[in-house]
Design a protein that fits this description.
The protein is of the alpha/beta class. Helices cover 35% and strands 29% of the residues. Strands 6-7-8-3-9-10 form a six-stranded mixed sheet, sandwiched between helices. A four-stranded antiparallel sheet has the order 2-1-4-5, covered by helices on one side. Helix 6 links the parallel strand 7 and strand 8. The two termini are 21 Å apart.
């Protein structure tokens, strides 16, 4: 489903050019969960940003199916992120003055769904990730870290994307809660045969993934 070929990204800094991603190539299958591991500054978050078109590569190819993404203009990148990609972040990135339900509804508003449709779909997905009806109208500050991450996963899933990109999704959670989040991501990969790519320091995520890739100084290699 996802095919990356000869991807490169260099940043210019006062100290000189930094090659964050160097000639990276790999592919995934539908229904697969892939873990990308590496030290801080190794390039793993930059690679995730490139896959989500939050950053543009200097050169190389990013394909979903037969569609080339690397050369899309700003409008095309926005449409791709809105319809094809769900993002999950370590810091949750929920809007604090919106309820859990409203946070999950938001991507559907951008996609043009009616209010009744948005509410019904958001409640359905929140129920799928195990957030009870008594929690859906609470704002993020009234939810635990694990509950906030469930909301973030529901928001990522609500548009039924082909690709889920998760950046350190268990980094702010205790071990037990982190294990539940790993299980949800594992389940998300199996649902609708979507691909989940996770950047992580967490060995438990790496062990739960179908494949483990390691990045060092921007160079990617597969670990058996």
């Amino acid at each position: 489903m996802l095919t990356i070929s000869s991807l490169n990204k260099t940043f210019k800094t006062p100290a000189g050019d930094v090659a964050a991603v160097r000639d990276v190539s790999f592919s995934t299958k539908p229904g697969e969960m892939v873990a990308i591991v590496g030290a801080s500054g190794s390039g793993k978050s930059t690679l995730l940003s490139l896959l989500g078109l939050l950053e543009s590569p200097d050169n190389g190819s990013i394909k979903v199916g037969d569609v080339e993404l690397a050369g899309l203009d700003a409008k095309g990148r926005t449409a791709y992120r809105a319809r094809k990609v769900g993002f999950v972040f370590q810091q949750f990135n929920l809007i604090p003055n919106l309820s859990a339900l409203e946070n999950v509804m938001l991507p559907l508003e951008f996609a043009g769904w009616s209010v009744p449709e948005r509410k019904a779909r958001a409640r359905e997905v929140l129920n799928t990730v195990g957030l009870g009806e008594d929690k859906v109208l609470r704002r993020p500050a009234k939810l635990s870290g694990g509950e906030q991450q469930r909301v973030a996963i529901a928001r990522a899933l609500v548009t039924d994307p082909e690709l889920i990109l998760a950046d350190e999704p268990t980094g702010n959670l205790d071990r037990k809660t982190g294990e539940r989040i790993i299980a949800l991501l594992r389940e998300a990969a199996g649902q609708e045969k979507r691909t989940v790519v996770v950047v992580t320091h967490d060995d438990k995520i790496a062990q739960a993934a179908d494949r483990r890739l390691e990045i060092e100084d921007g160079v990617l290699r597969e670990i058996a």
